[in-house]
Amino acid sequence: FLFVSAVEVKIEVVIPEKERSKEEMSPNGKASPLIYKVNGTARHYHLEEHPIASNPYHNPKDVVEASVCHVKDLENGQMREVDLGCGKALLIKEGGEFHAVGHKCPHYGAPLIKGVLSKGRVRCPWHGACFNISTGDIEDFPGLDSLPRFQVRPLKDNHFLLLVVQALQTQRRTKMMAKCISLSNYNLSSTNVLIIGAGAAGLVCAETLRQEGFSDRIVMCTMDRHLPYDRPKLSKSMDSHPEQIALRPKEFFCTYDIEVLTEMQVAAVDIKNKTAVFKDGFKMEYNKLLIATGNTPKALSCKGKEVENVFNIRTPEDANRVVKLATSKNVVIVGASFLGMEVAAYLAERAHSVSLVELEEVPFKKFFGERVGRAVMKMFESNRLKFYMQTEVSELREQEGKLKEVVLKSGKVLRADVCVVGVGAVPATGFLKQSGINIDSKGFIVVNKMMQTNIPGVFAAGDAVTFPLALRNNKKVNVPHWQMAHMHGRIAALNMLAHGMEISTVPYLWTAMFGKSIRYAGHGEGFDDVVIQGDLDELKFVAFYTKSDEVVAVASMNYDPIVSKVAEVLSAGRTIRKRDVE
């Protein structure tokens, strides 16, 4: 031990040989409990927009002992980062008991010391992921990995705490993941679980099945050419390559027998014969089905829409191509949506000019309200972006087949070498029209709180569904957020295994522009007032969205961890009144 005073905490890190080999094959090469470095560099984006890199220890053979603090240094409800010499852990006292877990969120590396501790879990201050302080397990998303957990026990004289890591549980739940034990029983055209779509919902569903001990065949299929990747990065960090933003390395899918069929499109689902029919004629029988096909971006319907160099950002290749074409050139972005605004911010210092065309008078007006929208607009204008509001595109003009000008209905003509379209999306559910699966008038798949459709054994998740939101009295809503897709996938998997688990999570999202993040929690649809604390001009504020007398959502900039705090309160089922925040 290193004696610093007569009373201290001892922390010991030991990784047995057999655990060490597992550590190297850990599910996500991007997450590690103790040492992080930014993966790649970007001029605008701060640490929070990057995944985190691996290798928890300088030398895993070392036994680490460190004296850090006295038992009485921590009050109930307090957290403290403690230094192990080779990295840090998060020490927590709640309900008279001590716990210790990894100190950084495995999603993008947020310091959990700045998060919110409540009722046995800690919530990330950046993107709202929640971790159980006793087990380290991830309980709300985004991200895929759990926190490493340390044993904590007082020494005999009760003056110090002993933290012992005998076997680091790297980034996986306390339950061991299963593998498929019956692949040989299947022919190529049948599977136990078929997952259509390989986004967050599909991947979390497959992983959860394995974590819960499911050892039958799992097949995921995707129209994409890549294994599942971090889709929000396509507009936030546009020059990322597919392997940099992969959610899991290739080896992970091999290790846990999760088969992924890439560039495969399902054309129809025959629910009577429990068969998916692919576009190329291939058929696959299933026992349980998850539909997680997400959205299809809307295209422009104006004259010249087939001109070259007009993009919807759907794939890493799209994003990379736009960056290449936009460098030192003129860019027009149609739609001040999350995607449109993030792309505009990313290209601002790379392009010669960036113009944004939007039908509304203020960006994000329906989502964040007029005052927050104006503050964001001002930030963009101070970064040389030009807005053309309350108008739309009437024509795209070309020269030798390539885009040259964008003509607006107002009569204005904008020079344009590349155009990015972000005017919303529609659910990718056309292939289900004749299936008998219940679809609403807008094309969303209707599910219950267990992510079940009207057809037994058929589940749906992610951006393509409407589901009952507990937060808004079980109103059927569509919540196309990255965090929500993860949770949908988890709930669907648990109910495929008959756990009877209902969804109750609070929606949480973030957007990043010019190195600044707006965080948002709740469901503000139909808000009738906004209560703002702080300073909009300084971009340091919190906005509470109210309906009647109740706070239904919150957004903030430079005000952490307020959004995570509100999310915790709402998630506990408590009501926040307008008078509480005024």
Annotation keywords:
single chain, 582 residues, alpha/beta, Rieske Iron-sulfur Protein, FAD/NAD(P)-binding domain, seven-stranded mixed sheet, five-stranded parallel sheet, 11 helices, 37 strands, 16% helix, globular, disordered N terminus, 2Fe-2S, mitochondrion, metal-binding
In short:
The chain has eleven helices and 37 strands. The protein has 582 residues and is of the alpha/beta class. The protein has four domains: 63-165, Rieske [2Fe-2S] iron-sulphur domain (Rieske Iron-sulfur Protein, 3-layer Sandwich); 190-296 and 427-497, 3-Layer(bba) Sandwich (FAD/NAD(P)-binding domain), CATH 3.50.50; 310-423, FAD/NAD(P)-binding domain; 515-580, 2-Layer Sandwich (Enolase-like, domain 1), CATH 3.30.390.30.
Our count of helices gives 11
Based on the coordinates given, report the CATH architecture of the largest domain: 3-Layer(bba) Sandwich
How many β-strand stretches?
A: 37
| Biggest sheet features | 7 strands, mixed
Number of domains: 4
Helix content: 10-25%
Q: Give the rounded overall mean pLDDT.
A: 87
Fraction of residues in β-strands:
25-35%
Rounded to the nearest angstrom, the distance between the terminal CA atoms is 52 Å
Q: What is the CATH fold-level name of the largest domain?
A: FAD/NAD(P)-binding domain
Overall shape: it is globular
